[in-house]
Request: fold
Amino acid sequence: MQWIKCSEQMPEINTQVIYCDEFMHRGSARYIKYDFAKTEKGRAPRFEDLRGVVHGVTHWMPLPTPPTE
Reply:
């Protein structure tokens, strides 16, 4: 798998991915959009993990295929 630059392509909405931020921190987050949010900023797509919004994401890649056994 290759890292994908956010400036070149973003994941599909509601997709769980591995991300890397501007400080080289890595983790798993969902790329999500809230169409029902009250403000335009709230409706903008963003990366979120269990702690909330993940800022400064520069690269992402799809999760690997889970084991079958």
